[in-house]
Amino acid sequence: MFNNNPPFPPATELRNERVRFQRLSAGYPGRPVLHQLSAAIPPLAMTALVGPNGSGKSTLLGVLAGVITATSGQLRYAEGSPPAFVPQRGAVGDTLPLTARQTVEMGRWGQRGLWRRLTRTDRTAVDSAMERLGVADLGARQLGELSGGQRQRVLIAQGLAQQSDLLLLDEPTTGLDPEARERITALLTDLVADGTTVVQATHDLDAARSADACLLLADGRLIGQGSPEEVLTPEALARIWQPA
Ligand code: ADP
Fold first, then answer.
1. How far is the CA of 227 from the centre of ligand 1 (A)?
2. Distance 174 CA to ligand 1 centre (A)
3. Which of 14, 69, 197, 233 is most buried as measured by Cβ atoms within 10 A of its Cβ?
4. What is the pTM of this model?
């Protein structure tokens, strides 16, 4: 899962960067998507990955999470735990016969292995992640029965249960009502304050504007990086979102 390939220099060389990538290209068989991206993810901060549908946000998160292998370029991580990845809600089968608690417990499989019993430490990590997301009382419910906002909180709890200091989320607030959105945004802000580095792909410009750093993607290319004020200018937004 953890993509820290030996050709890259040792992790400790990164200063004030949790992840750095250089000339990173990636995609799917016969379908190049990301082209020569170079950027850094600041530590202990919220980075928003912004761009239209199909611009490559999920693919970049997949590469950072280690589930998609880059075809070229460099990817380096500062010292810390392997990233925890919360995929898009739609990518997780709603019909899987899993309870909310079992879903969160899957976050511990990386530590424990698929067929080993969960230890007390695992159960404590699961309990505290569920408490933190306000889903402790939903533990016995089937995932498919939950509302979109509840399901999203369960998935974030699964990420949190991994107890990583690097949390990657794919559109955690998309499709939710404003209250659920605000709740998740506030939670992510708290996680950063508590020492987590958060990267979220988002369509929500309010969430992006409140992030510490922004990466703007269009057509698999990085067309802006820096503070939200620097990156999310009216000109840049018009360029990527207005019909041609
Ligand atoms: P975003 O998250 O910004 O919507 P994605 O990274 O999901 O963008 O997609 C970027 C491009 O990669 C799109 O053109 C999409 O169709 C393509 N793509 C995404 N997943 C796959 C896949 N599993 N196989 C082939 N192409 C894919």
1. 26
2. 17
3. 197
4. 0.91
